[in-house]
Write a structure and sequence with these properties.
This protein is an all-alpha fold and 508 residues long. The protein has 23 helices and no strands. Helix 17 crosses helix 19. The radius of gyration is 23 Å and the shape is globular. Keywords: Membrane, Phosphoprotein, Transmembrane, Transmembrane helix, Transport.
Length: 508
């Protein structure tokens, strides 16, 4: 596709726009078929700004020019996506659920998020380099077949996050209506709007996110002005030093997991960036945009948790659900507060849509039959599944957060440890053939990565501390959730030796 066609907004590049030489190359090396496009793709291609491309690599000649304006738009997109209401709920867990002081919880939130955001920034740099989606890039590290496990895990990750977003949005709408609108109907509304956005693809979504951040940020400032004077900086639950440190580690890991959940999606938003874009630029845009937004919402949540702990009357008035927590912030604002709460629901949509969009991609990455099914079909099925789960789990959201978020972090951090070591230790000189993204014969076997992944999980199980299971090491440390750290450590120690053995025996 010519650059002027992209600038006119005539949709994202599709396979129809590839040159014959590119098609021949990809047919030989990547297994892409050159037959005429299905009717649904031709129809989508006729719509303005609708993305028709699936998981196929974006070749260099179809990339867009990156200007100061596009860089700013990308930063605003990350800021908008991460400025999510559910992060406020996670932040409140430090003071409301774990009983930490404001200072302890705030420090854990800031530094945990900083580490996680840097990880997301690193993964985002693979988009311009390769032109491939994040979990397509995973094939170059995990191997063609083992990488499918990551795709399935990311489907479950996004299903869980979308479920949480749906419940929070549904509870807010129910509280705003004074109970006249049920939580179930509220969940359905959030899911439907997210589905519409995800169906049209990344282009429409990016346009929406460029502007969605402004009302969200204004509402959060109003929330801070309304609830900030009631923050209690001294309230906490008495505990021994061992248990206190365990709570700090657990909350640090929880906040780290919030950011880590973006890592398997990070490169997806940069596949139309040219390969010559500096890696530090992509990294900085991602960290500054997403990291700032998550810190703002997490800290606001930490403060809101202290309000609920120190003022039980609010718990009686609004309940202890996440929706009740948010309505507490607008307690003195009357009808205007309800209007602000509705804006918070739009923030849930902005945070929800990327996950719904990526689930369709993840299913196609499984290959075979799944690759032939149109992305909108998987988007629709995923929406139905997480909506049903949200309706069933609407009364247990805090427990879902506490148990679900760390599980995301476990697999993501193990996978990232393998990615970093493969890139630094084994691929620094040899480089990558990005046109071989769909050719198992040209990709690593993935034996070393697969075994290291399992070893990493063994470490995570030893260190995890959840309601349903507590590992041996977690018991010895007073209940600290060390699953993230032990999972990454075990995988990092196992992978180099196993990879050297694999290269000597297999050669790739």
């Amino acid at each position: 596709m010519k650059k002027r066609d992209i600038e006119k907004g005539n949709g994202s590049p599709s396979l129809d726009s590839l040159s014959q030489s590119e098609l021949d190359n990809d047919s030989a090396n990547a297994g892409i078929e050159t037959k005429p496009q299905p009717r649904y793709r031709r129809w989508l291609a006729s719509l303005r700004n609708v993305e028709t491309r699936g998981i196929e690599r974006v070749p260099p000649e179809e990339r867009e020019q990156v200007t100061a304006s596009t860089t700013l738009h990308m930063m605003l997109m990350w800021f908008s996506m991460a400025l999510a209401t559910n992060n406020i709920i996670v932040g409140s867990m430090g003071t409301l659920v774990l009983g930490l002081r404001f200072k302890d919880a705030a420090l854990c939130a800031v530094f945990g998020n900083l580490v996680g955001s840097c990880t997301v920034g690193y993964m985002s740099t693979w988009g311009p380099r390769s032109g491939n989606r994040t979990l397509i890039v995973a094939r170059y590290f995990m191997g063609y077949y083992p990488s499918k496990v990551c795709c399935l895990l990311n489907v479950f990750t996004n299903l869980g996050y979308c479920m949480v977003n749906g419940v929070v949005g549904g509870q807010i709408l129910s509280k705003v209506s004074g109970g006249h609108l049920s939580v179930l109907v509220g969940i359905a509304i959030v899911a439907f709007i997210s589905w519409i956005m995800a169906m049209f693809g990344m282009r429409i979504f990016q346009i929406y996110e460029r502007f969605a951040w402004l009302p969200q940020l204004m509402v959060l400032c109003i929330m801070l002005g309304s609830a900030g004077p009631r923050f209690d900086f001294n309230t906490y639950v008495e505990s021994t030093p061992l248990i206190l440190n365990a709570k700090r580690v657990s909350f640090f890991s929880l906040c780290l997991s919030v950011a880590l959940s973006w890592a398997p999606l990070a490169a997806d938003y940069y596949v139309y960036y040219p390969a010559h874009v500096k890696r530090w630029r992509t990294f900085a845009v991602t960290v500054l945009g997403g990291g700032q937004a998550m810190v703002i919402t997490l800290l606001l949540g930490v403060g809101m948790g202290t309000v609920m702990v120190s003022s039980p009357t609010y718990a009686v008035k609004y309940g202890t659900s996440p929706g009740g927590l948010l309505m507490t912030a607008y307690d003195s604002l009357g009808g205007f507060g309800k209007f602000c709460a509705v804006i918070n629901v739009l923030a849930q949509v902005a945070n929800n849509t990327p996950g719904v969009y990526s689930m369709g991609m993840n299913f196609q990455m499984l290959g075979g039959f799944f690759q032939k099914v149109p992305r909108p079909v998987f988007t629709t099925i995923s929406t139905i599944i997480y909506t049903a789960c949200a309706m069933g789990g609407r009364n247990s959201l805090y427990q879902i957060f506490k148990s679900f978020l760390p599980l995301i972090g476990y697999w993501v951090v193990i996978w990232i440890a393998i990615v970093v070591e493969e890139d630094v230790l084994f691929r620094r000189k040899s480089g990558y053939d990005w046109t071989a993204w769909n050719n198992p014969q040209k990709l690593p076997k993935g034996i070393a990565a697969g075994v290291s992944f399992l070893i990493g999980w063994a470490g995570a199980i030893l260190g995890m501390d959840q309601a349903y299971y507590s590992g041996v090491v977690a018991h010895l440390t007073g209940g600290a959730d060390l699953g993230l750290w032990m999972g990454a450590g075990f995988a990092a120690m196992a992978y180099p030796g196993l990879r050297l053995l694999e290269l000597s025996l297999v050669g790739r």
